[in-house]
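Journal club side-thread
Mid-discussion, someone asked how the predicted structure for our own chain would compare to the paper's figures. Pasting it here so we can look after the session.
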Amino acid sequence: MKIIEVTNQNKALTTNLVDIWEKSVLATHDFLSTEEVATIKKYVPQAIAEVEHLAVAEEDGSTLGFIGIDQHRIEMLFLDPDIRGRGLGKKLIQFMIDNYHVDSVTVNEQNSQAVGFYQHLGFKTYQRTDLDEEGNPYPLLYMKM
């Protein structure tokens, strides 16, 4: 497995990453309805295009997951649910720590798997909101290493 920083995004890569995003969200975000996932999905290509740094994990020519950061904050981390538990998320985060000194993340409180994952890696909650950044009733946890 290798981690590759993306320097030139193209439509095929974006389509692939959106597919990974959708599979991951359907597997972990049980607090979202199918309609909400479909609505959010429309904005994912733009979010991917706008991150400052994007890296993908590949194995045997297949993309298995990706991470996007802005400054020192993880903006997105999504893995193909079929490979979860193999250390890929940790490797993607470590890549961004080593290269960009990443030290913070915002995570949906209702995504208990993600909260536990970040806590396991040493992130601690320093702030909580009742609403997400779009004003929806999805509490967010702001975490720092």
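Post-session note: Residues 2-102 form a domain with the Aminopeptidase fold (CATH 3.40.630.30).
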